Amino acid sequence: MKQTKLFWRVVIVLLTAFMPLAAQDSKPASSFVPKSWEDSLAEMPVKVVLFPIRQTIISAEVDGVITSYKFKEGEHFQKGDLVVSLDDRSYIQRLEKAKSAVTEAQAGYDFAIKNLARNKEMLEKNIGSVQEVERCELERDVNLAKLKFNQSNLKMAEHELAACSIKAPFNGRIVRKFIQEFEYVRMGGQLVGLIDDSRILAVMHLPSADKRTLKIDQEMRVKIDETGNVHLGKVYEISAESDPASRTFEVKVVLENADRQLSSGWSGQLIRDVQVVPAKETE
Asked: Tens digits of per-residue pLDDT, 213-242?
């Protein structure tokens, strides 16, 4: 009997202890709305990678041996400066031959014109023949064709000689030499890589939802990882399409870099807590 009473006392104590918890569980749970994919993506930090505003690889337009580079890798040059020189001795000889051929063809054409005029005059005086005039006309046409052919060769020889001196297409600097001095390069072979980093493109990928409000020349701020500095730039290009897999689109923001404090290949982060202000329209 005592064991039975003790058992029920334990049961009552346990029920008393768990009744508040059961009452709490019976209450309706507070409403929880999970974040959407777009909201989660918008809160993620936007990484930025820096690229030069312009970059190109100069290829050889003629066969030849590299005689010299006028600038070292990393050195700055101006548009029109001589960057690479190829051995041009054989192309100088070709140019001289082409000039001589043009001079000869011009003389032959001039003679054919005069000869045709004389035979036409004789025919008008009835001391010549139609056949002779036709033969002179044929000689004129043949010599004209020779002249045009040699003039084309002269232009090609001039172009080939000029191609031995590669000049900078824009202000910038050398980032890589693909062929070293005194090495032979074939036409179309890569010579040197050039960049223009007077301005820098900060390339990033933003959520697709941001595309509705983003505009060209809109101001944005970027913090550079390597320096910790914040730079103000303007939207330069906006991709015409979004990536369906990541639900993002590419944006390029241009940053001024006249002092060359920024370097291509650096990384950073878009500052979202700064209100983006559209640039003023030029009148």
From this structure: 899 999 999 999 999 999 999 999 999 999
Q: What would the pLDDT profile of 176-212 be if each residue is shown by its tens digit?
A: 999 999 999 999 999 999 999 999 999 999 998 888 8
Phi, psi of 35 (to 5 degrees): -70, 145
Q: Is 100 left (phi over 0), alpha (psi -120 to 50) or beta?
A: alpha
Task: Indicate the residue type of 182.
Answer: F
> Distance between CA atoms of 47 and 93, rounded to whole angstroms?
56
Lookup result for tokens 């063809």: 105
Report the residue count for the chain.
283
CA gap 219, 66 in Å, rounded:
45
Q: How many CB atoms lie within 10 A of CB 249?
A: 19
What's the CA gap between 270 and 203, in Å, rounded?
10
Name the maximum alpha-carbon separation found in the chain. Answer: 162
**What is the bridge-based pairing of β-strands 82-86 and 165-167?**
antiparallel
Structure tokens at 74: 């990393």
